[in-house]
TrEMBL record:
It comes from Glacieibacterium frigidum. CDD domains: dTDP_HR_like_SDR_e. Residues 3-283 form the RmlD-like substrate binding domain. This is dTDP-4-dehydrorhamnose reductase. NCBIfam families: rmlD. Pathway: Carbohydrate biosynthesis; dTDP-L-rhamnose biosynthesis. The keyword Ribonucleoprotein does not apply. One of its GO terms (molecular function) is dTDP-4-dehydrorhamnose reductase activity. It catalyses: dTDP-beta-L-rhamnose + NADP(+) = dTDP-4-dehydro-beta-L-rhamnose + NADPH + H(+). Keywords: NADP, Oxidoreductase.
Amino acid sequence: MIALIAGSGGQLGRALQATAPAGVTVIAPAEAEFDITDADAVASVVADARPTLIINAAAYTAVDKAEADEAAARRVNVNAVGLLAAAARTAHAAFAHVSTDFVFDGTAHTPYLPDAAPNPVSAYGRTKADGEAAAVEFHGHPLIVRTAWVYAANGANFVRTMLRLMAERAEVRVVADQIGTPTHVPTLARTIWALTAKGSTGLWHATDAGVASWYDFAVAIHDEALAAGVLVRPCRVLPIRTADYPTPARRPSYGVLDKTATWNSIGPARHWRDELRDCIKEIARG
């Protein structure tokens, strides 16, 4: 298998390279060499790579900025997806695309099944939902993997932000009424590889196991970081309501994804707390 990765420099792109199975040749051009918003550039890179699989690990993820500039988000999250999907179809390659729990409105009280109807409440969510549709329209039979709350030892993410704030401040305040599931990026990467190896197509969900609020997640980050020596002093973590921390974009209050089909196919994921502990230990090692 020859796998071409778009978005190779992001946290998922790096994880896909690190977890690639034996027998897979990974081609991971830098963003400067692979402008996925340029049709000619996409066609040229795909023609040179001759992939049997294209994985789109690139996305516009600035949720609040998208409210003021939805067109910028749409160029990456919709238009570029169409270009990659069409190029994969032309190359007779499989196409895997990553989406998000933000395609849902967060009004559910039980985990969202893959076939639940999208109803995004933000510009970012709209572009990701439209990106799913573009993947289907321009490829025909893509693999679409929805995930949530992704973090890694490196890069810009909630874990790194919390560690920085906890080191700088005596207390941090974190929203406690938004519920979802943290996802250590190696979990997502391994899921994508496992599903593509089985030739899976359609909609699938992938996160770590368990459920948490952002406050729960922050408390766990604090405790694990103290235990690992990443934090040298305690920091108070205080719960607040979403209404106490207004943002330009609405967030789903409930974004838990049902992974039953995924786990039945490739095996269950570990609990998010176990994955977080591994991530914090990686950070401690430097």
